[in-house]
């Protein structure tokens, strides 16, 4: 019965009825990366031509009757697909020897040399990334949670995977941030493509552009910076919802912000330092007339009336 539950969950994930988080109990990070790579390649396979149609064309005679097709129940179809995916992933597993994972704590950043020796990832605070070094020559694939900046040399396709989509490039400098359904991609050099795996939509991001993605779709803006501000000790925002700015504050300083009584849909433009919490709070909340009080590891917000 447990095996049936496993297959059913995987089938619903393939049909996009469940998210990555929903199937963490039956598939770990390594499993998901293998599944996504398999699905990505399966999407590019063209269906074979119907043999009956081919025979009719060749003979130029009367149409050859086609065998009766019995429609398969959709749930059964997805379950079969899940079993097939598991079989394929077993083959992939035999070739996947190791997964390398890097994580950062609150207030920490990390520079990571990638296996090709010429590409680098810079991991922001409270973030994590992982990759399979044994497959790097064929597919440079990274799974990301949080925020990271990449400097990628040209070569095999470079793919950054996260729960709601992926970013694919050949060689460029770009930043990817993913957090609870919100994605932001900034391209500093070259061009990248942002794919939404749930809606099957995509958008190209050129040098000097930033694109955010959420449940409402894509939103594109222009940027003038040459690299992420957090690499030099600050975070910079332009017309960013306050709730996303608060998320960055929480990750950077290791605090929990209680914002129940304030409007977090307001847009913030500005910056704050990564090493001074009080100054950061003043710069972020003062423009909205919001008061803050630190209680232990919590920051309680209220409207200044």
Give your account of this protein's structure.
The chain is an alpha+beta fold and 305 residues long. It folds into three domains: 2-62 and 70-95, no CATH class; 100-222, Jelly Rolls; 233-303, Phage tail protein beta-alpha-beta fold, CATH 3.55.50. It is built from six helices and 18 strands. It has helices spanning 2-14, 29-42, 51-59, 74-95, 242-253, 277-285, and strands spanning 100-103, 110-113, 120-123, 128-131, 140-152, 158-162, 165-169, 172-179, 182-189, 191-196, 201-206, 209-214, 217-222, 234-241, 256-258, 267-273, 290-295, 298-303. α1 crosses α4 and α2 (29-42) crosses α4 (74-95). The longest helix has 22 residues, at 74-95. The protein is globular, with a radius of gyration of 23 Å. Residues 91-97 have low confidence and may be disordered.
Key attributes of the depicted protein:
single chain, 305 residues, alpha+beta, Jelly Rolls, Phage tail protein beta-alpha-beta fold, 3 domains, 13-stranded mixed β-sheet, 3-stranded mixed β-sheet, 6 helices, globular
